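Researcher: Here's a chain I'd like modeled. Treat it as a single chain, no partners, no ligands.
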Amino acid sequence: MKKLLLAATVATLAMNAAQAAPTLYGKLNVTLDNIDNNGFKDESVIKVNSNASRIGVKGEEKLTDNLSAVYLAEWEISADGDGDVFKNRNRFVGIKSNGVATLKVGQHDSYFKTAAGNNQDIFNDHNELDMTAVLAGEDRPKNIIGFETDKKLLGGLAFNIMFQQGENAATSATAKKSTTSLAGVTKETTVVTNYGLKDARDGFGDGVSASLTYENKDMGLAAAVAANRAIASKFNAYDLSGIYTDAVRVTGSLDLGAMGASGLVLGALWQTAKPTDDVVAVITTTKETNKPDTVKNNSFKGLKEDAYGVTAAYAIPSTPVKLKAQYISATTEVDGMKDRQQDLYGVGADYQINKQARFYGIVAQQKRDWLTKDDKKTNIGLGMEYNF
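Model: Modeled as a single isolated chain. Structure tokens:
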């Protein structure tokens, strides 16, 4: 069914090419990865990873001298054959005022997420090593209305803000129940999770993501400050997903070519994140035949994540080779518990064949300091990326 829908979409856009001339685009990014302590367990595995390979259609249709309709629909595809054939990525329809601003409606990467570019995440999209594995805030909210000013309007300075609609009157607490029966013994487990938000999500702008960005190509400078309010995110240290989160991120990069160091780019990132209402809890109740009920209450009061990262990339002059290195560290705290620290670090090398294709290699490691054994996951990989 999904294949049929995609084929119909592409065919319809092709028939209307005289009007909108849509662009079919995509990226295939496949690696062969040798992973030691896969999943932080005592096992090694060799994987073929698809690394957020994608396909999409996009376009712009002139409406008046100054206004255009813009649209984009993008799907993640499974280049290695595992997982879903098509998975939602960004998709929106909107209005663009030439040289002023664009209004978008649909699903889109949060402006908190896009505040960090490729120079702050050199393993971007990699199944095992994307900084999503360590940091909160790498989210793609649904049901959004986004507003973006044009970078040229204010000399490289741009303001972006999106409002997310929760579209329901329920609170964030949800319950999941499972029942098993064996040899006359029934075991019922109910897990009630509170996702860090007391209020209902039934109005305009239940979640907000905004950023202020600045780019100066002559100086080689790109910088941004971004913030989220009540955007669902993940705290990796405790494997807590869907937590409504407030966060602040500051990020930037500097191309030192303007200072004589041709090909050298430095990047940095700092952020902090915590639940919107500090009421995160997971309560597990178990009822078993002929046994007293047991209740396990995991409270995450005081949950907070502080993180930073630094990167360096060097494109060797007059060669197709670029060398890259990255270090990211995130510390997560909870009242009454010992802090948990995650580190992600590694190096990579790209061989750029042309504008569309590159070969690359990576050697990287992720470390979790709260594990007593198998606390380091090591990844050695070779890959190819092709853009069309």
